[in-house]
Every structure is written in structure tokens, then in C-alpha cells.
Amino acid sequence: MNSSSKPNLIKEYEAIRGYTEQLCEPLEIEDFIVQSMPDVSPTRWHLAHTAWFFETFLLKPELAGYKTPNPLYNYLFNSYYNAIGEQYPRSERGLLSRPTVAEVFDYRHHVDQEMLRLIKSLDEQQLSELIPTIILGLNHEQQHQELMLTDIKHVLFQNPLFPAYSSSAGIKDSPQTDDVKWLAFSGDRVSHGFDGTNFSFDNETPRHEVLLQSFELADRLVSNGEYLEFMEDRAYHMAHLWLSDGWALINREKWESPLYWVQEAGKWFEFTLAGLLPLELNAPVSHVSYYEADAYAQWSNARLPSEFEWEYAARDIGIEGNFAENGVFHPMSGQFPENKQAKQMFGDVWEWTRSPYTAYPGFKADQGAVGEYNGKFMSSQMVLKGGSCVSSRNHLRSSYRNFFYPHSRWQFMGFRLARDPKI
Q1: What pTM value is reported for the model?
Q2: How many domains are there within the chain?
Q3: How many alpha carbons lie under 13 Å from residue 152 in its C-beta half-sphere?
Q4: How much of the chain, in percent, has pLDDT values that exceed 70?
């Protein structure tokens, strides 16, 4: 997104903030406050936290005479910014019945009203100085839109009724999955990271050189049907396929399939935001952990790509695919024209890479509390690329680095395979 003029900025602000509330329309009031696990936040909290971000980093320091509706909101809705102050425990966000959902919507509308007043009051120089923080706040909001959908999916899955978020969401007809084609890439010294066009998060910088060895990349994502073959081969019981931590995890948690797969009367179903549906074998597998993706790669005599390989392969591919704008909110297999490019590089599922989430050479976090956004999490997590079916299209780029712990799988997480060339 690139909103350099005041009218464009206001239009973009209203559109993104409005979409957050649009995503809430299918919910019942009871859905807003449930927290199904520590990684999941109640929808009400997402609504409040995204308002808190604009209030904290823009309204309080920049709008003269601004008054918050409640000073305790700084404690309740601060996520992890230690420079701002203490935070209410993340794992206990679902224990609070107040502020009410209505009060949180009032808080959002108060912040929106004041943000528009702030933007309209700025002269050209002041606007140019604040635009980076406003655009950061809007991208932050888009991240939470995605989290709202993945979190409410986990919340609804806990219910034996398997309620649907929306009957209009769900799988559309999926064509037959083509056999995997392996795309060859020659080794080279390449530039990697954000190219300096429009917005990026700080963890995508600085741009730097990477030496790539020759590699091959699967032209599409691994499908549900292929993953089912892995399961039917009893791969969840083959210790030699698994990283040590992954083997301990699947045995401790008794994992036998991806999250949201349900077996009834010998048939597999998948819980979706449209409810429980028959498993679509041609759709990309999703909701698998890094450990499961890595074990499947081992079973296939392949590996996961590095984030550098993935980004190099995606460098000339347009950002097209199955995104939140489609309203499907579920990965789909697609029909693609014959070409030599990898398919589904954007949308459908975040793709696990084998790269640990660490700083690029020369990386320096921003000064102040905003600098806590990404840098302090560069430990024990893995990089994912490409976005998902609940990501907004204009939020993504090839340099975008998502990151999660290797055991995580409640997000729309899938993978494609890579391998070293045969000698």
C-alpha cells in the first residue's frame, strides 16, 4: 500500500478499519469473548488491540488534548510492548467479561473519529512524518484480521456442534491436482530482502547478497491426498522421519493427522470456516506444523526450501491467488496456465521454509517501542512465506517474512517441497 496523499490515506484507513468490523458480522455476541488456547485471542481483544495501536503510537503523542476512554485500556490491550508498560496476561484474555463488546466497538469508533481528525489537521510536512507509522498501523491491522479468522476457527472447532463461521465461506469445486513438476534453479549470488518499493516490515531489511546453490522446487503445494498417503503409510509412527522435538511432540499430543481433520465412519472430514466438510483431496494440505512438514519432506526423499530459495523463485511471479478478498477462507487447488513458474506461491497457505527466523546482516530494530514489533522475536521460530487464504492481497510481497514456532499449526500453514539436483 502506498498512500502519499491525504484523501488516499483516509480512504485506505477507512477501508481497512471497516473490513475488520465486516469480518465480525457473521459472529454471535458469545463468539467474541472465547479464548480456546493461549495462542488464540478473543475477537473482542483483536478489535480493541488494533484500536489501542493507533491510540498509543499516534493519538496520544500527536493529537493535542486527546483523551482515552479508559486509561486501563493501555494495560488490557497492550500485547507485548514493554516500553509502553505492563500487559494483562495473554493466556487470560478470555477470562474478562468487561469491557463489553459494545464498549470495545465504541472504543474503536472513538479512535477512528480522532484519527481522522488528526490526519485532517496535518500539513504536508507533518503528514509525511506520520505516514510511516499510520501505514505500519494499517498493516498491523491486516495481520490481526488474519488472526481473527484463524482464531475464531480454532474457537468454533472446540464445539462438538462444529458451527460454521459463515455458510458462504468454504471450499469451491477443486480441479484435479496435476503431477508435481520440478523447476530447476541455477546457483547464483542474488540480492535478497525488501527492494525498497512501498511498505515493508523492518525484519525484511536490509537487502543483502545471498549465495544460492542450485536447487529444484516443486511447482505446487503438497495436497491433502498426498498427505493422506503419508498418514496411511504410518509415517506418524516412524521415528526416523522426525526431528527429535517433533517426535516428542506428536507422541505427547497423540497427533495422527493435521489439525481440523476429523475421521467419522472411516471417512475423513475437515473442519472449515463453513463447518465440517468432506476432505477435499486435491486442495493444499493446511494446518500442519513445521515438524509435520519436515517429516513429510523426509518421507518424500526431499526437503523444505529455504526462505532464500523460496523468495528467489517468487521474484518474477505476480501476487495472484486465493486471498481473503475471495471470501472462501479455505485453501483451494487451482487451475493454472502452462508455464515454467511455481504455482500458488501466494495465497492459500503460508509455506513453511527450513530457515530459522533470524536477523539479516546489518539489521537494526527501530528505536522506541515500535522497535519491539519484530526484532525481539528472532529466536526459536521458523520463517513462512507467501500468505494464505485469509491474508489480504495488498498486504503481501515476496520479501514478507512470517514466523511461528515449529509446533504451531492453527494458522493456515502448508508447504511445498524442494530438493538438491541429482548429480
Answers
A1: 0.95
A2: 2
A3: 30
A4: 96
